[in-house]
Structure formats: structure tokens, C-alpha cells
Amino acid sequence: MPEIYTLGQTPITSHAFSADRSQLVASLNSNDAQIFTRQGTEWISTVTLSEHDKLITSIDWAPNSNRIVTCSQDRNAYVWQEQPDPETGKIVWKPTLVLLRINRAATYVKWSPKEDKFAVASGARAIAICSFDPENNWWVSKLLKKPIRSTVLSVDWHPNNVLLAAGSADMKARVFSAYIKEVDDRPAPTVWGSKLPFNTICGEYASPAGGWVHTVGFSPSGDVLAFASHDSSINIVYPNGPVIHNIRMPTLPLVSLIWTSEDAIIAAGHDCRPLVFSGTESGWQEAGTLDDPTAPKSPESRSGFGSSSSVGRLKAGAFATFRDADTRGQGSASPTTDTKVLTIHQNTITNVRPYAYSGANVTKVSTSGVDGMLVVWDVNAVTALTGRLGGTHLR
Question: What pLDDT does 323 receive?
Fold first, then answer.
């Protein structure tokens, strides 16, 4: 059974775990990030990271250096690290300034594998590649710009610490070189190329039906790229071929994905459930979902609201119907019909993260959503696609 937690009554815009999974950092649709500590079967908020003055859009927690990076609509990013307070001597989280040099909102942030750099996507048609400047004790950035034509929505690092995948609202997924001479060793040749000066375009792939590219991800080897876009498709790119497998789905678009092994991907988004895709260079397909729609869910009903009279039930049920039609596109012939969806998440899943590993493979993943819930799923608990998920659409 999945582990289900409610962190709040507001959307979780982003979440990330500490290396030992005893702590969790999340932004609950606010300017602050909260660090939760696990106590028994609950997550208790213990620390608030306050520095941003607009909504935090993305968070990442570096497992080895134990540093948290946050970015926000205020066009800033901060690197948070535990340090002793000079007055009290207690260990507290302190922010370090990041010079992003962007004039639009920061949208997504990701640590590099070696944790000596991080990438910040933005609405400024640019990606800031940030590295530490010890002389001034801040993080400085170099900008990847060309040929980006719109807001960058997501990024992911190649295992070699140099290549960076990015998905943007100009309907393209791209692979860039983020090589910084002062930081990186010269990388070995890969399937994406061998000459890799900063801002080299190593690959550019269009969304098949012209949708925003919401999410990108390299396979564990770095030899394959996956991206999902707003046209309800997921695409797997083998650059050596070159071969591109496109899976068109009858469901709502995906907004986040991770690879669990070299031949499996878990992705989720507006359809409220994590989907599993599997395949090889010869072909890919939908393999199932981690959420069993036939399993018993919470008995909480969204209609009635405890009204004692039939008039009260009718009014409350009508309100629930209207609200769900507005927020989730659900309608109902009867205003008193229960409109709770048959998934654990009751609204869009915003983040999919690896949670547990067995060797190089991911065995558990975590998801957070607009419903304020955090769910930890067993990757092996895949159920067949049912209901409106339909069958496999492989092209």
C-alpha cells in the first residue's frame, strides 16, 4: 500500500528529501519553504526557510553536501546550508546569495550530480548555470540562452555533470553543454557529442503536436532522453539511431517524470495518478499505473458537507459539483452525486521524485500535488491500466 501524508490544505509546488529520508523540504504555495521532520507516521514542520518575497517554484536538496537550493518568482535563488549561529551557537539554516542575472521568474532548479553546480530555469528565455565563488562567498551564474524562445519549464543533468536537458514553452526539448572551464574536468565523449564548449546544442527535439515541454529526464546511463509535453505525449529519444518513440495518450498531460531504470519511466501530472512506461530502443508502451483505481480510498465525501436537511445537502452538493467542474473539469448529472475522483491524489501531481534505490534502480518514488498530499509509492506495485486511461498507444 502507498504511504499517504497530508502536509497541508494548500498546493505543494515542490518537494525534496534529505539523503536519509528523515527530513523533507516543501513549499506549500507560499514564499517560504518548510522543513518537515518525520515523527512516527507523521511529518512535522520544524524549520521555516524565509528569504523569498514571492512564490517558491522549485526546490532541490543535495544529498552529499546537505545543501538546499530554492528558486522563486521573485527572480532569485538561495542556497541554504546548516551553520552555527554566531550568537547562540545553535545549528541553523543560513541562505547564501545567488547572482542569477535574470529578469523574469525562476521556474525550476536542479543540483548537478557532483553538487558543484546547479541549473535554474527561468521565464527570461535563459537557464542560469550557477557555481560557487569562494572569494565573494556567493554563487555566480553563466546563462544558456540560444536558441531558447520562451519560458524554460524544467531541466535535468546528465550523469557526466556537463550536459543539461531542458524543456521549454517554445515546444522544444534540448540538450545543452553546461561546461564551465573553471569548474569541470574535460568530459569524455558521449552519444550526445565530444566537443562541448558552453552553450553547445547537442540535440533539439520538437513536441509532436506542438505542446509545451513540461518535463525532461536523462536515463541512468545518460544515453537516452525522455520528455513529456502538453499535447498529452511522452517521447523517448535515442540519439545514436536516431530513434524517437512517441506515445500519445488519451489522458491529461504529464508534468513530471523520472527514470526508475534504463528501461522504465514513471510520470505524472494532471491525470492525478503516476503512470508507468517501459521499453527499449525497439519500442515503448504504457505499462500501467501505480495507483489502483479499484482499491478502497478515504470514505470522505465531497458532497453534503454534513448538511442535516435535504435543501442543505442539495446546495452543498451543487457547490461541490461546480467547484470540481471548475478545478478538475468534472461534471455530474446529479448535484448530490459524490464527485471524489477514484485516485489517491485528488488533484494535479506537481512532482515525482526518487525515494528509495536498489543499486542503480529506483524502488520507491514520492509524489506531491495540488491537493497538499505527499504519497510514497512502491515502483513494483503496478496495476493494469483501467477506465479512462484506455489502452496502449504506441507509435
Answer: 57
- 3 state DSSP class of 312: helix
Question: Is residue 201 situated within a structural domain?
Answer: yes
Position 328 in a domain: no
Does residue 308 carry a pLDDT above 70? no
Q: What is the DSSP string of 238-286?
A: ETTTTEEEEEE-SSPPEEEEEEEETTEEEEEETTSS-EEEEEETTEEEE
How many C-beta atoms surround the C-beta of residue 176 within 10 A? 27
In this structure, the strands spanning 138-144 and 91-99 are parallel
Sign of the CA dihedral running 41, 298, 14, 383: positive
Work out the percent of the chain whose per-residue pLDDT is above 70.
86
Using alpha carbons only, how large is the chain's radius of gyration in Å?
A: 21
Q: Give the range of the structural domain holding residue 119, as residue numbers without chain letter.
A: 3-294+354-389
- Buried b / exposed e over 221-243, threshold 16 CB at 10 Å, is ebbbbbbbbbbbbbbbbbbeeee
What are the angstrom distances between the C-alpha of 325 and each of 10, 233, 318, 320, 335? 19, 24, 11, 8, 11
The owner of cell 523574469 is 104
Q: How many domains does the chain have?
A: 1
- Taking a C-beta distance cutoff of 8 angstroms, is the pair 15, 25 a contact? yes
Burial of 64 from C-beta contacts in 10 A (0-12 / 13-18 / 19+) = exposed
Question: Residue 323: inside a domain, yes or no?
Answer: no
Residue 342 lies in a domain: no
User: How far apart, in Å, are the Cα atoms of 207 and each of 216, 230, 231, 249, 295?
Assistant: 12, 8, 8, 14, 35
3-state SS class at 317: helix
pLDDT in tens, 345-367: 999 999 999 999 999 899 999 99
Task: State the pLDDT at residue 335.
Answer: 46
Contact indicator for 259, 270 with CB cutoff of 8 Å: no
CATH number of the domain residue 168 falls in: 2.130.10.10
Choose among 295, 273, 267: nearest CA to 347: 273
pLDDT (tens digit, 9 = 90+) per residue, 30-43?
A: 999 999 999 988 99
Of 42, 2, 41, 43, nearest in space to 25 by CA: 43
